[in-house]
Each structure stands twice: as C-alpha cells, then as structure tokens.
Amino acid sequence: QELRPKSLDIKQEELGDMVEKEMASTSEAIEDAVRRIEEMMSQARNESSGVKLEVNERILNSCTDLMKAIRLLVMTSTNLQKEIVESGRGAATTQEFYAKNSRWTEGLISASKAVGWGATQLVESADRVVLHTGKYEELIVCSHEIAASTAQLVAASKVKAEKSSRNLARLQECSRNVNEMAANVVASTKSGQEQIEEKDTMDFSGMSLIKLKKEEMETQVKVLELEKRLEGERVRLGELRKQHYALAGAYDAAEDGEAKPAPAPRRGILKKPPLAQKP
Q: Where is this region: Disordered (predicted)?
C-alpha cells in the first residue's frame, strides 16, 4: 500500500466503479453530441440557404458520422475491458483487478475522459461555425484531438488484452474508422471554408488607381503583421509542447517512484581520480 502511487487515494471498490462510471459518462456525452448535431442540422435548414446551407449540411453530416464511429469505439472498448477483467490475470474480483492494476486503470480512465471531452468540444465548435460566431480552424483542431485521444484509448486497452482477442481486433478496426471519419471532417471543413471564401470574392473594378494603390499597401502591411504573428504563435506552441512533455515526464517519474541520478561533477583533466571506497 505504501508503494502505490500517492495520487491514487481511492479504495479498491471505488476504483472499479470509477471505470464503469467514466465509460458510461463518455457514452452519454457522445449520445448528447449526436442529438445536438441533429438539432443544429434542423436549425441550419431553417436559418440558412444556398451555399451556406450546403456547407453547413456537409460539415454536420461528417460530424455525425464521426460521432457514430466514436460511439462504436467506446462500446467495443467496454466489451474488451470486460473480457480483460473476466480473464482474471490473478485477481479474484473486478474491483481487485482494477486496484491491482491501478496504473493501467488510471490510464484507461484518462483516455476515456479525453474521448468524451473531444466529442463535446467538436460539437461546440460546429455549433459556433453554424451560427457564424466560430472559426473553421477550431473544427480541424478538434478532429485532430479526437484522433489522438482515440489512439490513447486503444493503447490503454491493448496493454492488457490478448493478441488473439477478437474484441481487440474490432477495437483497432474502430480506431481506423474514427481516424477516417475525423479526416472527413477536416476535408469537409476545408472545402466548405474555401467555398464560402470564393463566394465572397472581392470586386475591384470600380476602384481608381489611387484607391487600388492604397488598398495594395494596406494589404502588404497586413500580410507582414500576420507573418510576424504566425511566427510568434509557432514559437509559443513549441514552448507549450516542451512544458507539456516536461510535466508528463515528471508525473511519470513521480508515479514510478524513481529519481534520476544526479549528473556527476565535472573534474579537471589533470586531477587524479579519487580512490574507490568500500561500500
């Protein structure tokens, strides 16, 4: 008990219940996401028309397909977890199994939360896009996050599963399907954005030479400002990722209870090394 991770201050029976509750909560979040997308679809048909309606329908349809793929993924993952627990692996009860494999259980809970959170964020981003208050780029980022969290869930489930398990094969197939549907969301979002921008093509035919020159200079200034801002955001993203990896590494080290050895002090080249001491 003393060697167990300090962050896991949970009783055995509570840990098993947490896994089941988290998977059920993820399923509910996905079901709610599907309902919200259907509501957005009917709202878009009532409030938009033409190119905008076509774009919204294509994006929302791809989001619906992605949600269905995620729902099947969670169901298959739940079946695989039951199979893993029923195989025993030296544990008498479900609660004892989850407690005995607490590190794995924590990873499973974290992965499930990530999937549910990604689905919720995707729906909220789609809602803002349909209402003309959001950005298309948000949908693209959410799709990438869902693909990443799906890979995390598959990896967490794969650790304890038998290689010959049919449920594991189904889970991997569901993961590929989720990635394909997420790619479809990205593709439909990009094509829709381009279609909307083409519709709003600017007409310069009525401008005078002086007005055209002024617009050209102002546009050049905006281009330089955006390039500078883009470079700054890339640097910020790199620093955020470094900090993320550093914190993740520190957390893993604390969980393992291992401390990295301190680097040996540098010695002068001409100094004689100290004699070995008895242990």
A: 252-279
